[in-house]
Request: fold
Amino acid sequence: MELINIESDIKGDAFEFFLKTYNAGEKDLGEYFTPRHIVKFLVQLLNPVFGEKVYDPFCGTGGMLTETFKHLVRSVPNNESSLRFLKEESVFGREISSTAKIAKMNMILIGDGHSNIQRLDSLSRPIDSLYDIVISNIPFAQQTEYGNLYDFPTKDANSICIQHCIRAINKTSTNGRLGLILPEKVLFDKNYESLREKIYQDCTIANIISLPSGTFEPYTNVQTSILHLTKIKRKIKSEKIKFYFVKNDGFSLDKNRKKIIGENDLDNFFTKSNEYNSLFIESEKIKKNSFILQGRKYIPPKELAEITFGTSNLIKLSSFLRKVKNESVVINDADDYDLLGVKSYGLGVFKKPLKGYELSKGMSYYKAKAEHLFWCKVDTKNGAFGVIEEDQANCIFTSNMTMLEIDKEKIIPYYLEILFRNKKIQEYFDNYISGSTNRKYVKISELLDFYIPNYPKNEQQKIVKRILKAEKEIIERNKLIAQSIEMIN
Reply:
């Protein structure tokens, strides 16, 4: 028991390991272990005080609630009635999976409150106006059959989870507040516009805190944000909404998640000036922009490029890319065609031989030109760009694709293709995409307003030469492997 309050949190380390295998036989419920430093940040952000009731409807192993309990115990009056209220009337949780048992055990170890943990599907039993604070990491990308119990019925559990949390806040609370970790698509996807409008109208949006990709590794690399609401159900709006961008959360953003020594943006949220890593957007601007709450949508492309690439030496895409008028192709059923496609992550253009009768009759087709940038408009998120090669000229492509002429005096075509394999480039584009899942697009006019690092021609040549050499070595090694396999008797 003496291990309970030590800083390294031995129980948390043990349960994190345990969680990886504990539910191996159960279906995926969209649950991920929330890193303890994120949990502590959320509790500090919401700052619960003694006398308030705190609820986590998706409590998992109880990390949010145990940290809340530790926070409350520091200020509780030292008398029997206050201690009883702390243990029995302060923290509440629900959990759909068998990890509810771990949450109960955690609460017992931390000082009690375990009787307030229930194993059930929270969405099946809405709570009306009962708690002062809701703190949670909602399950991602799930479906629910209980959407009809809520104001905005849907099978999409992202929406229903958020509605459940807001509904649980006591309308008589002067500062009912909420801190949720949620998938970032909720903040911009058109499917959630009505929900965002309701939040905008009924609550004060205190902070939107963007967490870096990799925060929930090794479970998922889904981009997440923290939605921080205050004065819930009181219809009080602030003139400006604060967006805060976490670039360094104190741990490496890979599957190892090793601790980084030094300052981090989570701690700096409370200690640095209000402008640090922040963007303030007028509420009216957000109202006019489909209530989009993704901060990067409001950063001009050049400014975001400087932040993303760490340099002001940039070049605008419109300075070396130009729209071209596509030449239409009339399809004859008996003729042979090569239909062009493009691989994701900048891995090049490919062609597929087809007969005319195999091509979709509802599509328009156009003729390809060599050394033009070829781009899949509906899969921009995955870096679906490539350069059309000489032997692919005069092939055909559909209206889902487009071509842009490359100014070869300013940029080497293959170097441009290499750039689209770069993770930072893909992340930069991702900030301006529309749509959902993999069907994400950027308009041509928007694309031409983007910026990339400006390398001189001689540096481009060095990079291309180095990549081509490496690719040639890989091809030769693969041939050698294939030959060695064939020689086995």
